[in-house]
Design goal:
It comes from Colwellia echini. The chain is built from one helix and nine strands; from the N terminus they run αβββββββββ. The protein is mainly beta.
Length: 132
């Protein structure tokens, strides 16, 4: 009888290991989507002359028709120049992006298309090469 009990526990464990935890995903028809919040844009900021990352104290304005979002890399502590700015969370559309940093010329790019799949926006990575 003891052997049967252990076999029952083993079989039940194997069966349950294939179950999906609903707290980690959202069922969208036949596709299981995560609940992760996905940024539509990541913006890498570099100095055009040196190629070095310069993200600290940068501001980016992300626009799509009536939608406008300001993202910054300002921080109250240490700043990481290699960080990426992120925006347009879970938003498809056609975006214009304007980047500014003191001591550098403003930088812009236009008509960046963000699309979505069944679950999330597809992230587009932009490299802003700022000039002095």
């Amino acid at each position: 009888m003891k052997n049967c009990f252990y076999k029952f526990i083993l079989i039940t464990s194997i069966m349950l290991s294939g179950c999906e935890d609903s707290s980690d995903s959202v069922n969208n028809g036949d596709v299981a989507c995560t609940e992760q919040y996905v940024s539509g844009l990541t913006i890498e900021i570099i100095d055009k002359a040196t190629g070095e990352p310069i993200a600290c104290n940068v501001t980016a304005i992300i626009e799509d028709n009536d939608y406008s979002e300001e993202v910054t890399s300002f921080s109250s502590g240490e700043c990481d120049n290699a960080q990426y700015l992120q925006g347009a969370g879970e938003r498809s559309g056609i975006y214009n992006i304007h980047v500014s940093k003191e001591g550098y010329l403003d930088w812009s790019v236009y008509n960046i298309e963000l699309t979505s799949n069944v679950c999330h926006v597809e992230t587009v990575h932009i490299i802003a090469e700022l000039e002095k």
